[in-house]
Predict the 3D structure of the following.
Amino acid sequence: MAGLMRIGRPGDGREAVGFEAPLAMLAECHQRIEQQCETLARLVPHVAEHGSDAAAGEAAQAVMRYFDIAAPKHHADEEEDLFPALIEAMAGSDAVCLHEMTQALQADHDELERRWATLRSALERIARGEPAQLPLDEVSAFAARYAAHIEREERELLPMAERLISAAAMARIGVAMRRRRGAAA
């Protein structure tokens, strides 16, 4: 099953957007999240058929690396920088719906992190080559929750941010994202 481990990795042939376009970077992160969820979904039948073989171990390590490192930074980009900048841009307006949306998205982040912790223990065993089961229902629920979350952000949050956040505030968000990743200025 060689095609199984088409592991979602950065640098898939497209030129990545930079920190000067933070909303585009967030959208690009969404694509990588979806790729990792696809890898996770392909891993379920592979492990059921082949066990924790080398291909499964490599895929499990890649998924863990992404959701342990990149996804938390993505959530922090939104919670620590984007959401506050958007709320600040709404100052003086009726921002009740915006507060409700950002609180719901933060609750999604918390739920996604909880679901990730459940999946991660099985992936650790697979990565070590140990027998493990990767429950389809848990993988499906995790991927579905992320898909709904991403859809809401791309349909509501990112267009609103693009419309309302000033260029100066957007530049500050880009700097914070760069700093969070330890990237050179």
